[in-house]
Design goal:
With about 500 residues, this protein is of the alpha/beta class. It is globular. Helices cover about 45% and strands about 15% of the residues.
Length: about 500
């Protein structure tokens, strides 16, 4: 069954689902998390963050360059009470809003900041640039199945110290959807929020409808590094939300058993959420998940593996347990190109969290264990995501959809092709864009046997060339240019 939320412009999916864990199991993870937070604590490498924890009631053991912060259960529960249960990821226009609430499933591209890209013109592997960020975000803006815009690559040709700011400038100029990205620390978070305020039409409009969320990545095991803390603090102060997304590696930065990875991951997410609430009660927080395994044979961290799917499902269920929005990895691949392995990896890791009710699944277009971005993987992945949504919508069974009277009317040996009922409901039947359903003869005649990946690259080129994102407000272009020049000048002093 599908229920449409017109304000969000996206469907709520309440058809097929995946329970995965019992309430007792989820409570066991939560109770064990409280114990670790209380007895073992979190390593915190930011003095301002330590002060927030201390003033909030945590015990602090100080060392030269960090502190061990032990958090009592009441502080955890208080933070969870103040976290918004439903978060709206605001776009620059209302039709782009995405409400992250129960059973609302969405997708987005990329799994983190890719440093490499398959060049769309040459097909060669190269380092990513700011223009790549812009072009991929333009495609994200175009594809309706992508509910928000994720930073897909890094502006590798820009000043490293403010690279995240360049990333955001490219994103907001090319997509009117809500943007998620790593802020790159407190100073850059403040700069990004300044740019976002201009893009939103001013500070008042931004505070009413914040159009960006900062990604904060706790470091496994059990560490909030300086950059992560700075991003959380300035995002909370600045009126925007945070996405807490650890990446524990089973057998390396976390224990080898799957349950222990879920536990440690949960502790790390909670530590970030608590800090955000101590800075500003009511700060929107999204429960993120990107944990996987360490393949000890190759010292690699693969993402197209069964464990990735399981850990993402677990993150979704813990988020639902806390009544928080979820954002989890799925759809990325370890393959070096868009091939059969990439397609298998996509389905294996994206479908389970979709069935679990993940609010956002990120990873479309990611290959080579999230080092590289590929346009064909993005275009075909978006179409596969549409097919997944069709499945999890389920089947609505009632007197009208059963059409028993129609079956009796047509009777044995009849047909439905010319019946008005078919015309009324034919658009409910799934359609394909790139995935070809034609006969071999028609396919050969129409495409000359063109490979689906070549067709996907062509589609990406077409979108980049023809799609025009929503323009920024009047005067915003010059103001943003001026701000970027100001930031660059500060570097050169």
């Amino acid at each position: 069954m599908t229920r449409l939320n017109l304000r969000a412009g996206m469907n709520i999916h309440s058809g097929f689902g995946l329970k995965a864990f019992t309430n007792d199991e989820l409570n066991a993870v939560h109770n064990a998390s409280l114990r670790i937070l209380r007895e073992t604590g979190i390593k915190v490498e930011n003095k301002a963050a330590v002060a927030f924890f201390l003033n909030g009631g945590a015990s602090v053991e100080t060392f030269e360059n960090h502190a061990i912060v032990r958090i009592p259960p009441y502080l955890v529960e208080d933070a969870l009470r103040t976290v918004p249960k439903t978060v709206t990821y605001y776009g620059r226009q209302k039709k782009d809003d995405f409400v992250a609430e129960e059973n609302r499933v969405g997708f987005t591209a990329a799994m983190g900041e890719h440093v490499k890209i398959i060049d769309l013109k040459t097909g060669e592997l190269r380092s990513s640039t700011k223009n790549d960020v812009a072009e991929i975000c333009r495609i994200q803006d175009y594809l309706d199945i992508l509910s928000v815009t994720e930073r897909p690559a890094c502006s590798g040709d820009c000043s490293p110290s403010i690279q995240s700011v360049h990333n955001y400038e490219a994103m907001v100029r090319n997509s009117s959807k809500h943007c998620f990205l790593g802020m790159g620390g407190g100073d850059n978070a403040k700069k990004i929020i300044e740019i976002a305020k201009i893009a939103a039409g001013g500070e008042k409009q931004f505070l009413k409808r914040p159009i960006v969320t900062g990604t904060a990545c706790p470091t496994s095991p059990l560490t909030l590094v300086d950059e992560c803390c700075g991003s959380i603090i300035e995002c909370a102060r600045g009126g925007t939300g945070i996405l807490a997304v650890p990446m524990s590696l089973s057998g390396a930065s976390s224990p080898a058993t799957k349950a222990s990875v879920i536990l440690q991951h949960n502790v790390e997410v909670l530590s970030a959420v608590i800090l955000a609430q101590l800075v500003r009660r009511g700060t929107p927080c999204t429960y993120g998940g990107c944990s996987t395994i360490m393949d000890l044979r190759f010292a690699s961290s693969p993402v197209g593996v069964p464990e990735m799917a399981l850990f993402s499902v677990a993150a979704v269920k813990m988020a639902q347990f806390y009544k928080m929005p979820s954002w989890v990895g799925g759809g990325a691949s370890d393959s070096k190109q868009p091939d059969v392995q990439q397609a298998y990896d996509f389905s294996l890791t994206a479908f389970p969290p979709a069935l679990a009710g993940a609010n956002t699944i990120f990873g479309i277009g990611s290959i080579e264990s999230i080092l590289t971005f590929d346009y064909a993987a993005m275009i075909t992945g978006a179409e596969q995501a549409e097919r997944m949504i069709k499945v999890i919508n389920g089947i609505d069974i009632n007197d009208m959809t059963l059409a028993a009277d129609l079956i009796q009317e047509v009777g044995p040996g009849g047909d439905y092709i010319s019946h008005k009922h078919t015309y009324q409901h034919m658009r409910e039947i799934s359609q394909s864009k790139l995935f070809d359903r034609r006969s071999r003869e028609v396919w050969l005649k129409s495409t000359n046997g063109k490979d689906i990946n070549l067709a996907a690259y062509d589609e990406a080129k077409r979108i980049i060339k023809t799609h025009q994102p929503l323009p920024l407000p009047n005067g915003a272009d010059k103001k943003i240019e001026s701000k970027m020049a100001e930031y660059e000048a500060l570097i050169n002093k």
